[in-house]
């Protein structure tokens, strides 16, 4: 079984506020305390905080039989900021949204494995998203008992946990940050594919699938766009040195979009558009609408485009907008048991953070539990989950997720492109 009380429910309004208030005050937890202690472990004499315990249950059947591994979640619940006397209490509670959703999805994943006979000890800590708090957590002896640490969610505390992981030879997951947070750390696992993996996939798709005579990269001189463009240009040179790739400055928010005209031609035009501005996309689509019917377009967009509001999906389908994703769009509700189970339990559909927690728990929970197999061997197997692709490659910086797929605008959403 998963020995952890079901405390952090995803709720709305006042009910959610009182739940976090219960966690922050009713149980007497501090930011450095272990939020939930599970399994057979004993409470240390010097541990002053009250800790909730549940007895571990041994399974007599099922595919899993071994001692329960210890997993530790380090998440920024920020329970210290819940103030019942503040007029902004519900607003401050929204800062815990990511941690709550991720926890709920992760917990549901472990529960799913428990139903098959697995057993885990789960330790949950509130990092407050503060480096000083994370440093204090690393002094807790029970954290060193972990076989896997998940978190912190944000990159700022990764260096601290990275040093701890090296000293204690414990693997740790960077669950959400799409970048290598700590260099030269063999115990690091980067679960969200870094940008280099996305640009590599995009370049490979262009060279191998679209096969254009040239590629036009549209730049608005935005810093984030520049990171994508720099990585893409490097990957494109490696994929096809003979393919002409031209970067075009179309001005801030497309003020110089007309400069694109001299590069367009009859037949297929492949554009790489890393902009995350809905205003720019509106201007771009309007400009393409004015082009002759003999001009055809395929557009490679930034992986985060689905998060941008007010993108015209009719135009996105018309102009064949593609993007890369290490997750993808959630399956339809009727096709997902996880979707139904989560919505029934928490009253809301799972967010992307909940889905990430669920897939991580399913993948790494299985890897930790499988008898006779080291974690580093188990995670070499690719995994296609509810919302995430995992395909880890060992590098000097640890294990990096290279699981990226190509999506295309179709029927008002982005759906996976079938492989040839």
Would you mind describing this structure in some detail?
The chain has 420 residues and is α/β, with parallel strands linked by helices. The protein folds into 2 domains: 2-192 and 333-401, Response regulator (Rossmann fold); 195-325, Rossmann fold. 33% of the residues lie in helices and 19% in strands. It has helices spanning 13-26, 89-93, 97-114, 131-137, 158-168, 195-210, 223-239, 278-289, 313-318, 337-346, 352-369, 375-378; strands at 2-3, 34-36, 70-75, 120-126, 148-150, 171-174, 188-190, 214-219, 244-249, 267-273, 295-301, 321-325, 383-384, 389-390, 392-395, 398-401, 405-410, 413-416. The strands form 3 sheets. Strands 1, 2, 3, 4, 5, 6, 7, 15 and 16 form a 9-stranded mixed β-sheet that branches. It has a 7-stranded mixed β-sheet with strand order 9-8-10-11-12-17-18. Strands 13-14 form a two-stranded antiparallel sheet. Strand 11 (295-301), helix 9 and strand 12 (321-325) form a beta-alpha-beta unit. Mean pLDDT is 83; it is low at 4-15 and 25-62.
Structural class: alpha/beta
H/E topology pattern? EHEEHHEHEHEEHEHEEHEHEHHHEEEEEE
User: Structurally, how many domains make up the residues?
Assistant: 2
Average of pLDDT: 83
Q: What fold name goes in the CATH topology slot of the largest domain?
A: Rossmann fold
First and last CA, distance = 42 Å
What portion of residues belong to β-strands? 15-25%
The count of β-strands is 18
Known CATH architecture of the largest domain? 3-Layer(aba) Sandwich
Helical proportion?
A: 25-40%
CATH C-level name of the largest domain: Alpha Beta
- CATH superfamily name of the largest domain? Response regulator
The number of helical runs is 12
Q: What is Rg?
A: 24 Å
Q: Shape, please? A: elongated
The main β sheet shows up as: 9 strands, mixed
Low-confidence stretches: 4-15, 25-62
